[in-house]
Design the sequence.
């Protein structure tokens, strides 16, 4: 169900990913069947995100995580597929506030992420950032931004630096469907195209910007918003990790060859509310259930593994391993002390001598 | 071991709720992610999902129960091989879980006696605002300006250009971006010749999209570059204020020190001439309000050169407030040494005096010096302090001066309310109250949007004569 445009492409209408996509097989035609090891890796990566987020939800419910906490459950295939296509020795990543999964995908330590959620010393920002504001220079993850749309401009800036230093890296800038309406996103499409910046703009269209559906917020089609700037765009099924990976690989090749930016609109769905305190009354239970039951990205990979003869016991083994990682992260996040009182006053400015 | 399922909080402020409905019964198998119950508060109904798999062994709080405390055990989940007999639903188990969580949540346990933290180590300029709020005022590091004797003649705009060019020759990571900075040579010709010398990769014309290009520059700074962003005027920089504050100033703190943002945002600030309200505003107090930013505002060509070089070398985001009316002013005393870097955070006493202190920055320094000459004719010996840096403020120099003169006038082009003069008034109130022989006086723009009509504009802007009046008033003359 991939939809692609180039600057001169004919008009196409937006896809609806609800239920089984009738033409999803068209992708696998052009791609080799994924092997068991690849499937297992996807299963593992996506399961880690889901179990991590469920645990975060639980700790939030216990009052151990404060403030806002935006969970990624349901969207796992998006970041998993795209990260698999990246050059993880040099590409950079930036996203918005629904960011825990992106950090896990960037190979950041689940303990450090969970401890940041609980506001402890062992967190990536030593407890000073919280759920929406985490970074890892080492893993080239540049946040974690609480301002909708700001991460897109920063992502274009990461790409600017890749081009300036000619280091061959591509910036992967995630945004939500809500952010895609921000003025600065349009500004950055323009500049990224104008300057051929190596940026992959990923629109994670989970169909709701907080409680407002895309239908009620967004005119036209999001992946075509770059058309006027000459940025190719494509709409893909974000519940299918393989489709995401294949599309991302092609897009990244295109960008890395010096062609400038690319827009991937990835249709996905979040099972939970916008944040923990959102009861999600703006959508029906049936709608949520249809995704969970028919389109779950993890179940899909699990089914494929089983079709390939992987035993239940082998999958249980992965489940167990993930459960242990998440358990240890949660324990660490509760045992790690609150930041030292001195931390209040550090990291405001870099001292010249430092 | 059986796992306790606790009453969850829907928000950090929720303390209790109603258990509306159980969607699973005792003995049902549960997968992680399954919805097992619904809870409600006065605001919303929420689903409770299982985090672990197992069998719902025992429901301890029946549906329809109201006022269930957050973290109370509502049910018990059994793992393979466990039976309901393994469940020991004691009051103690429930209350200990609550207690444990309350301890973790209770902020009072982590606060000190007065909520005041220890001082940071050392006494860097960067720590000055922190130290100040702990009652410590430090003297800025010394700067031997007189040692720079080889001078050349330059306008402010040329001095700015020279500073940028020198630093760009030195450091390849430095680049200049903004509207009309390249081919047009700068809307105010502050980047004359730079495109020719450094090429289009390092001197970059942008579309008219301040919000977007400020964000791009910030992203590039996080990824290793050292951008200089020119706003055609700071009025247009308001489009980009989110990136200046939320993205540039706060990242170092939010990243626990891992990731900073070495960037200079520069452009003309304050009123020009007859350009009306939207193009005439001083942003000094706006940006000086923000921890994580340094704010610099030069007056002379030497200021412009030395401070710009310091701003580019600084590892922090620096807001650099120039003034269009000063760009063409020519000075014959601009140090030619490439090492002429004025330390950020140090004010300069432009004129020494005994009777009254006049604190000013940017264009008001010139007006203050003019006022000082008039005051001298009337027998009042004024000391003029050129702040150079707004944040971190050189409180030490101001206080030393007031201890000598006992009278102070603060002159700025911004509005009076919550302005730089107001901050200095607070400083004086806190640390020099006993030294004052007269109340502090402020000279500011009138508290109105700047009018266009020539006569009204002149009335609205602070002039040398206003400083003279204010100085005479505090001297009771």
Sequence:
């Amino acid at each position: 169900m991939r939809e692609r445009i180039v600057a001169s492409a004919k008009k196409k209408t937006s896809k609806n990913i609800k239920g089984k996509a009738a033409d999803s097989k068209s992708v696998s035609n052009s791609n080799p069947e994924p092997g068991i090891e690849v499937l297992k890796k996807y299963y593992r990566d996506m399961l880690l995100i889901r179990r991590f987020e469920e645990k975060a939800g639980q700790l939030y419910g216990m009052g151990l995580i404060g403030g806002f906490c935006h969970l990624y459950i349901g969207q796992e295939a998006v970041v998993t597929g795209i990260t698999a296509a990246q050059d993880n020795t040099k590409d950079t990543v930036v996203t918005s506030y629904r960011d825990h999964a992106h950090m896990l995908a960037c190979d950041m330590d689940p303990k450090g992420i969970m401890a940041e959620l609980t506001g402890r010393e062992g967190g990536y920002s030593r407890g000073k950032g919280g759920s929406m504001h985490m970074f890892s220079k080492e893993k080239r993850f540049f946040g974690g931004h609480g301002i909708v749309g700001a991460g897109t401009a920063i992502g274009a800036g990461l790409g600017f630096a890749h081009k300036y230093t000619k280091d061959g890296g591509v910036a992967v800038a995630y945004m939500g469907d809500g952010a895609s309406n921000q003025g600065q996103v349009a500004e950055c499409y323009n500049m990224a195209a104008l300057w051929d910046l190596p940026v992959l703009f990923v629109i994670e269209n989970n169909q709701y910007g907080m409680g407002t559906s895309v239908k009620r917020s967004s005119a036209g089609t999001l992946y075509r918003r770059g058309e006027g700037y000459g940025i190719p765009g494509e709409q893909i099924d974000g519940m299918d990790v393989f489709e995401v990976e294949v599309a991302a690989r092609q897009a990244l090749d295109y960008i890395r060859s010096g062609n400038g930016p690319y827009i991937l609109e990835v249709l996905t769905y979040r099972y939970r509310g916008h944040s923990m305190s959102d009861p999600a009354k703006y959508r029906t239970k049936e709608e949520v259930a249809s995704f969970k039951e028919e389109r779950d990205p993890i179940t899909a990979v699990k089914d494929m593994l089983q079709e390939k003869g992987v035993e239940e016991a082998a999958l249980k083994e992965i489940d167990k391993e993930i459960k242990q990682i998440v358990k240890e992260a949660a324990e660490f996040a509760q045992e790690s002390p609150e930041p030292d009182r001195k931390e209040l006053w550090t990291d405001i400015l870099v001292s010249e001598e430092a | 071991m059986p796992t306790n399922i606790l009453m969850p909080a829907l928000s950090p402020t929720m303390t209790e709720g109603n258990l509306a409905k159980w969607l699973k019964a005792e003995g049902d198998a549960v997968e992680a992610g399954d919805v097992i119950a619904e809870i409600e508060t006065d605001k919303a109904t929420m689903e409770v999902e299982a985090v672990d798999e197992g069998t719902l062994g025992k429901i301890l709080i029946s549906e329809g129960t109201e006022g269930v405390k957050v973290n109370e055990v509502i049910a018990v989940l059994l793992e393979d091989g466990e039976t309901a007999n393994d469940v020991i639903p004691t009051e103690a188990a429930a209350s200990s879980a609550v207690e444990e969580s309350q301890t973790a949540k209770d902020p009072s346990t982590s606060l000190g006696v007065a909520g005041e933290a220890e001082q940071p180590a050392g006494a860097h300029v960067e720590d000055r605002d922190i130290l100040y709020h702990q009652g410590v005022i430090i003297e800025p590091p010394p700067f031997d300006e007189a040692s720079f004797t080889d001078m050349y003649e330059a306008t402010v705009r040329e001095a700015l250009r020279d500073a940028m060019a020198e630093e760009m020759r030195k450091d390849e990571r430095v680049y200049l971006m903004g509207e009309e900075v390249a081919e047009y040579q700068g809307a105010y010709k502050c980047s004359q010749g730079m495109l020719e010398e450094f090429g289009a990769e390092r001197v970059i014309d942008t579309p008219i999209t301040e919000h977007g290009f400020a964000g791009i520059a910030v992203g590039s700074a996080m990824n290793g570059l050292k951008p200089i962003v020119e706003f055609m005027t700071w009025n247009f920089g308001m489009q980009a204020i989110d990136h200046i504050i939320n993205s540039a100033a706060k990242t170092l703190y939010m990243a626990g020190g891992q990731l900073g943002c070495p960037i200079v945002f520069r452009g003309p600030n304050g009123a020009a001439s007859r350009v009306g309200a939207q193009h005439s505003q001083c942003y000094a107090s706006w940006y000086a309000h923000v921890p994580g930013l340094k704010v610099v505002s030069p007056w002379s060509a030497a200021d412009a050169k030395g401070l710009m070089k310091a701003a580019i070398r600084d590892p922090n985001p620096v807001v650099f407030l120039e003034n269009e009316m000063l760009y063409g002013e020519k000075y014959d005393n601009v140090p030619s040494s490439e090492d002429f870097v004025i330390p950020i955070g140090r004010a300069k006493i432009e004129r020494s005096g005994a009777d009254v202190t006049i604190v000013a920055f940017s264009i008001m320094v010139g007006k203050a010096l003019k006022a000082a000459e008039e005051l001298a004719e009337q027998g009042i010996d004024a000391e003029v302090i050129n702040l150079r840096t707004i944040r971190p403020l050189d409180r030490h120099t101001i206080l030393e001066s007031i201890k000598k003169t006992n009278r102070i006038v603060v002159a700025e082009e911004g509005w009076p309310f919550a302005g730089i003069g107001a901050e200095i008034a607070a400083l004086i109130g806190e640390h020099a109250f006993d030294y004052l022989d007269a109340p502090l006086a402020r000279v500011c723009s009138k508290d109105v949007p700047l009018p266009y009509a020539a006569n009204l504009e002149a009335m609205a802007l602070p002039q040398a004569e206003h400083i003279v009046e204010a100085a005479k008033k505090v001297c009771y003359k």
Q: What stands out?
A: Chain A touches chain B through 82 residues (CB under 8 Å).
